[in-house]
Amino acid sequence: MAAPETLHATAVSCQGRAALIIGPSGSGKSALALELMARGAGLIADDRVIVTLQDGAVIASAPAAIAGRIEARFVGLLRAEAAAPAPVALIVDMGQGESERLPPQRSKKVMGITLPLVHNIDKPYFPAAILQYLKAGRRD
Q1: What range(s) does the HPr kinase/phosphorylase C-terminal domain occupy (predicted)?
Q2: SS3 state of residue 114
Q3: CA-to-CA distance for 130 and 111, rounded, in angstroms?
Q4: What pairing do the DSSP bridges indicate for beta strands 48-54 and 42-45?
Q5: Most exposed residue of 7, 48, 58, 135, measured as fewest CB within 10 angstroms of its CB?
Q6: CB-based burial, 25-62: b 16+ in 10 Å, e otherwise
Q7: 45, 59 in Cβ contact below 8 A?
Q8: SS3 128
Q9: Of residues 8, 108, 123, 135, which has the active-site annotation?
C-alpha cells in the first residue's frame, strides 16, 4: 500500500467526486474553489491536500490542521464546512492555459493512477463546466 502524500493543491467535491486543483502559488486555485463552492461544491482542503490510494482510487482529504478553512486573497482565511474525503475524478491545472476549443483528453498520474486533466480557461463559465464534469463526466 502506498504511503499518503501531501500535495500543494486545493480540492473540492460535488456528488461524491473530487476535483484536485493544482498549479503554482497565485495561479487561482483557491479562487476557483471559492467559485465552485458558491455553486454548491464542498471544500475538501485548501492549499494542502492529502492523497491516499484506496481500492484503486486516489482519495483526497484535508490535513486536520487546515480542515474547514480556505484563503480568500485580500479578504482573509474563511471558515467553510469541511467536505468528506472523496475520490479524485478530475485534475484542474491552473498553471496551464487551454487554447483549443475542443481539447484532446489529457491525463496526469497521481500515486500511479491516471486521472483526467483539464487546463485553465479564462472564461466565466469555467467553474460551471468543472461542476458539470464532476456530475456527469466528459463525452468524446
Answers
A1: 2-79
A2: strand
A3: 22
A4: unpaired
A5: 135
A6: eebbbbbbbbbbbeeebbbbbbbebbbbbeeebbbbbb
A7: no
A8: helix
A9: 8
Q: Whose CA is closest to 85, among 106, 64, 113? A: 64
Stated pTM of the model: 0.96
119 an active-site residue?
A: no
Per-residue pLDDT reduced to its tens digit, 89-123: 999 999 999 999 999 999 999 999 999 999 999 99
Q: What are 45-93's pLDDT values in tens digits?
A: 999 999 999 999 999 999 999 999 999 999 999 999 999 999 999 999 9
Instruction: Please identify which of the residues 101, 122, 139, 140 carries the catalytic annotation.
Output: 101
Catalytic residue among 17, 39, 46, 47: 47
